[in-house]
Amino acid sequence: MALRGEMMHTTLDASSAAPLYKQLVYFIKNDIVSGRLKPGGRIPSEAELSGSYGISRITVRTAIAELVKDGLLVKKQGKGTFVAANNARDVHQFISFTQSARMQGMVPSARVLSAATRPGTGEEIEALELSEGSDVVCIRRLRFADNRPVSYERTVFSPEYAYLIDMDLSGSLYDTIKETRGVVPMHSYSLVELHQADAEEAELLGLKAGDAIMQHTDLVYDQQRKPLHLSKQAMGPGFKFHV
Q1: Pairing relation of β-strands 212-222 and 185-196?
Q2: Which of 47, 75, 184, 216 is the most buried (most CB within 10 A)?
Q3: CA dist 131 to 34, 156, 163, Å?
């Protein structure tokens, strides 16, 4: 999307359970934390955003209002809307699954289902800022809290993390990455959607196909504000995931 502020081009999904304005909020937040939208910089106008995403100006206005309320954007009369200058990119401190489980007095663990490289999808390549046609590292795990399966996790990394395939991934991925590369997850942005469990998710989480679950899509950044991974988690009932 060749617009002021160099926002990442991403299409919205009209079939998603997440409202369109919430999806736009998610993408603008990602552009702020990644540095595509600079503190103090002007974002595209309502008309530009409406035209680029194919949504109404009312939908754009609702998303902008939420970001202004959160302190990420500032509206200036007669000038436009700008990224807040002070700590605009420090919008959410990262909390991992392991931390969330421990905060609830539970013992976290994981079972690795698969770990391999494969061609990246368009969404993955864009989110991780990779070159077109790049491979990605995909790690599928079933996450447990007190030995009860609560999350089916699919995490995608850039090729530089291919070494993880040969590591013990039954514990914290982030501890492994910190110990081996000195990389620390610092910020994440989440899109949370109501989702019907498919056959695989239902079997892994001990549910019935079609049961309502929550799906978290997370884009996580490291301490250098570089994309660390993109993940999708199907969350079973009875577990509170902090975002």
Answers
A1: antiparallel
A2: 216
A3: 17, 15, 20
Q: What H or E segment, with its residue span, contains residue 221?
A: strand 212-222
How far is Cα 130 from Cα 124, in angstroms, rounded to an integer? 8
The answer on 149 and 218 residing in a single domain is yes
pLDDT attached to residue 84: 84
Rounded Cα distance, 68 and 192, in Å: 20
- Judgement on whether residues 176 and 66 belong to the same structural domain of the protein: no
Between 35-49, 78-92, 164-178, 186-200, the lowest mean confidence (pLDDT) is in: 78-92
Q: Please report the DSSP string for 59-81 in residue order.
A: HHHHHHHHHHHTTSEEEETTTEE
For residue 11, tell me if it sits in a domain. no
Residue 43's domain comprises 20-83
Whether 235 contacts 214, CB under 8 Å: yes
Q: How many domains in the chain? A: 2
Helix (H), strand (E), coil (C) string for 138-203: EEEEEEEECCEEEEEEEEEECHHHHHHHHCCCCCCHHHHHHHHHCCCEEEEEEEEEEEECCHHHHH
Residue 218 scores a pLDDT above 70: yes
* Contact (Cβ atoms closer than 8 angstroms) between residue 101 and residue 108: yes
Q: Which residue has the tokens 């702020």?
A: 32
Instruction: Answer left, alpha or beta for residue 147, where phi above 0 means left and psi between -120 and 50 means alpha.
Output: left
Q: CA separation (Å) from 93 to 148, 155, 205?
A: 27, 19, 28
